[in-house]
Specification:
Distance between the termini: 25 Å
Structural class: alpha+beta
Radius of gyration: 17 Å
Number of helices: 6
Strand content: 25-35%
CATH superfamily: CNF1/YfiH-like putative cysteine hydrolases
Order of helices and strands: EEHEHEEEEEEHHEEHEEHEE
C-alpha cells in the first residue's frame, strides 16, 4: 500500500508520497505554516482569490514551489468552479494562473498532463484533492472535488479522461485522496443527504448520523467510486486528516466561516534520469 508522509524543507511542511517519487512523480499538499501572510490568512496562504495581499500569496507560492523542487513559472492553475470540466495540459500552459487569477484556465476543476516539469496546481480549504499517477504511460492528473464535484463524479471522469486521451489502464493508475473535510465535520441538511444517497445508491456508509444530524463522508464516497471505476485497492489511499479539525495545519472554509486562506495541491512528472 502506498503511504503518505509529512515532509519539511526550508520551513515549509507538506504531505507527499515517497513511493510515487521513486516511480517518477511528485505529489504534494501544503500545510498552512512557513509563509508571510497575516491573519486570517496566516501564513502560507496559496489562494489569490481570498482577499489576501497578492504579493504575499505570490511569495508563498514561490516558497512552496521551491520546497517541492519547482519554480512559479512551472505552475498551472485552473479557475475552480465546482464543476466537472477537465483540461488537458501541455507546455503552452506553463505559468497560467501562477501570478494572476485572470490568466488561470477558465471553468475547470481537473487537469491532466504527460509533460514532465509541469506542476498541476489546485487550491483547498475543505474540498478534497484527488491525485492520479500512471507510472506506465507517465501521466498525472489532479481533480478538485468538493461536494458538488463529487456529485458530478469529477474524480471518475478524470480517470476516464486519462484512459480515453492517454490510453491509461485503470489497473496501472495510482490515486491519492488528500486532506479535506471529514465526516466528523461535514454536517449537511436532509435534502442534500437524500440526494447523495440517491446518486450513490450502490455505495455503503457514506452518510452517517449523529445526534439528529447527517454527516457526509466525501473521501469514502470518492474512494468507493474510484474502486468501482477500476483502480485497484492497493493503488488507492486516503489521508484521514480532516482540514476542519486540524486548525494548526490547515485552513478550513467551514471552521473559519469563509474568512481564511487556501492550501495548495501540486503534482508533476519528474524528468527521467
Amino acid at each position: 500500500m502506498q503511504d503518505w508522509h509529512w515532509q519539511q524543507k526550508w520551513g515549509i511542511s507538506y504531505i507527499t508520497i515517497p513511493e510515487w517519487a521513486d516511480m517518477g512523480a511528485l505529489a504534494a499538499f501544503s500545510a498552512r505554516s512557513g509563509g508571510i501572510s497575516y491573519m486570517p490568512f496566516d501564513s502560507l496562504n496559496m489562494g489569490l482569490h481570498v482577499g489576501d495581499n497578492p504579493h504575499h500569496v505570490i511569495e508563498n507560492r514561490k516558497r512552496f514551489m521551491l520546497a517541492t523542487g519547482g519554480q512559479l513559472e512551472q505552475m498551472v492553475c485552473c479557475q475552480q468552479v465546482h464543476g466537472d470540466r477537465i483540461k488537458l495540459i501541455n507546455h503552452s500552459h506553463a505559468g497560467l494562473g501562477a501570478k494572476e487569477m485572470k490568466t488561470a484556465i477558465g471553468d475547470s476543476d481537473a487537469m491532466i498532463t504527460n509533460v514532465p516539469g509541469i506542476f498541476l496546481t489546485t487550491f483547498y480549504a475543505d474540498c478534497i484533492p484527488v491525485y492520479f499517477f500512471d507510472p506506465v504511460k507517465r501521466v498525472v492528473a489532479l481533480a478538485h472535488s468538493g461536494w458538488k464535484g463529487t456529485m458530478l463524479r469529477i474524480a471518475e471522469k478524470t480517470l476516464q479522461s486519462m484512459t480515453e486521451e492517454y490510453k491509461c489502464k485503470p489497473k496501472d493508475i495510482r490515486s491519492f485522496i488528500g486532506p479535506g473535510i471529514g465526516s466528523c465535520c461535514f454536517a449537511i441538511d436532509g435534502s442534500l443527504a437524500d440526494k447523495a444517497i440517491r446518486e450513490f445508491d450502490s455505495l455503503s456508509d457514506i452518510i452517517r448520523y449523529n445526534n439528529g444530524k447527517q454527516y457526509w463522508d466525501l473521501p469514502a464516497t470518492i474512494y468507493q467510486c474510484l474502486i468501482k471505476a477500476g483502480i485497484e485497492n492497493n493503488h488507492l489511499n486516503i489521508c484521514p486528516l480532516c482540514t476542519c479539525c486540524n486548525a494548526d495545519y490547515f485552513y478550513s472554509f467551514r471552521r473559519d466561516k469563509g474568512n481564511t486562506g487556501r492550501m495548495g495541491a501540486v503534482i508533476t512528472l519528474l524528468e527521467r534520469n
